[in-house]
Amino acid sequence: MSHVTHLESAIDGTHLPHDQLQTLHEGRPLWVRYDLGAVKAAMTKEAVASRKPTMWRYKELLPVEDETKVATLGEGMSPLLECERLGAALGLNDLWVKDESQLPTGSFKSRGLAMAISRANELGVERVAIPTAGNAGGAMAAYAARVGMEAFVFMPADTPIVNQHEAAYYGARAFLVDGLITDCGAVVREGTPEMGWFDVSTLKEPYRIEGKKTMGLELAEQFDWSLPDVIMYPTGGGTGLIGMWKAFAELAEMGWLADERRPRMVSCQADGCAPISTAWEAGERFADPFPDPVTAASGLRVPAAVGDFMIIDAVNESGGQARSCSEESLLSWAQRGAALEGIAFAPEAGACLGVLEKLVAEKAIDPDERVVVFNTGAAQKYVEAIGTNPLPRLPNPVDWDTLKS
Ligand SMILES: *Cc1c(COP(=O)(O)O)cnc(C)c1O
Prior knowledge:
Elements lengths: L3 E6 L5 E2 L13 E5 L1 H7 L2 H5 L30 E3 L1 H7 L4 E5 L9 H14 L4 E5 L3 H12 L3 E7 L4 H9 L3 E5 L3 H15 L2 E2 L7 H16 L7 E5 L4 H15 L10 E7 L4 H7 L26 H11 L2 E5 L1 H15 L5 H15 L9 E5 L7 H6 L11 H5 L1
Parallel strand pairs: 5-13, 6-7, 6-9, 7-8, 10-11, 10-13, 11-12
Antiparallel strand pairs: 1-2, 1-3, 4-5
Bound molecules: pyridoxal-5'-phosphate.
């Protein structure tokens, strides 16, 4: 049994029951609410520390009722890596990377989809559909396969080639759509009555946030329940940023955090698709759809986010910022980070590094502050981006004269 009490509309606070399938309320997402007193009584730090190193170690603070229905591929805990060389390049003395590239299907999407598919499985869903900018489709296909669910994936025709193949490889019925992820979302909505599938779009069901929340729980545990000063998060739909901010609030309410420190949450986007930073910079709570979104950081190519106000609220409550950087900056920082640290930085994480460079230059971050960058995906999934820009094709054959010079 979980300690979930109800679901709560993020836009107007309406309570909804959690023992049945739920989607949006008034077109906006739902929070999962727990009896945190009961969670605190049922869970100890020692018990958590003794469990397997997966995101399910926080099970009392997660929504699954029946553990036999869990869809798992061993997701989490991801390594938290200290990065001295990359830190020095950015002018920082205490830089860390939470490396999500090692999770199943090569991105942190596995956390959210493991949770969403587990809950859908518990509630009797047999067929799921998703619009995706790339990694979510592969993750959903894998977890659906894991519990024998039928999966349908819709992605823009220019989605990275590895994402196109992986969804089909995991047995999903995968389709390309001429247009953006929002157009793929329209296809899923249109097909729902006839196909009878459950829509697991970002934030359109309540549980992906709970899966992504585990990044915040892990980070707290890995830093001995004391949070860093700044978190740099590459924002598409914003689930991870929203989920981590929720995790910190829940841990604080349970009295599990060692001190009062809460990180400043920095939402990072690419200049080519920056709806959240544009809205934040204008002092808005809701974002306008971003016209003609273009970026190799495909996970950030989300021109309209249904949880825009939840992202901006978290950023503002934390004293953080929502910013973007150029395409050149994110691609070159991702590659530089990979070469300096051996971490498979995805272009999305490159956006965090590009924004970090700006914030250090603006003195918005002190060199001694503890900063954590989320590397949300594996560089290997972006063969087009890493093969062309900024790296040239590899020389063949070996030219010894050039090599030795
Ligand atoms: C989806 C995705 C993002 C954006 O995540 P949200 O939580 O939806 O904002 C960032 N990076 C990668 C690699 C992604 O696949």
